[in-house]
Amino acid sequence: MYERKIPLTLNCGLDLIAEVLYGKWKIRLLWFINEGHKRPSELLRKIPDASRRVLNVQLNELEEHGLITKIIYPQAPPKVEYSLTAFGQTLIPVIGELGRWGDKHSDHLRAVILKRMEQSS
Fold it and tell me: What does pTM read for this prediction?
């Protein structure tokens, strides 16, 4: 069983956001589900660097946090689709604004990230 090495801190909104959205693919998953990519295979195609297992773990966590719902259609093979909850939809404008900020500052951010990668190798 997983045991946290760092104690959970939920003192402010930023702590809460970090706990809910921590995970490399969660923000992208929310964005792509909002765009209409609802099936796990579609999401995997949109995020080819992610493994199916990691995507499933992060989708399950988003569902546990009440941001998405999972619908399983009773057929063979089972068909699964995800959709945003009303609560999850409230994050879409925030994610959009973060994306615009990243686009606006992309040259600076890319340079800083590449410099850090060069220093660590």
Answer: 0.86
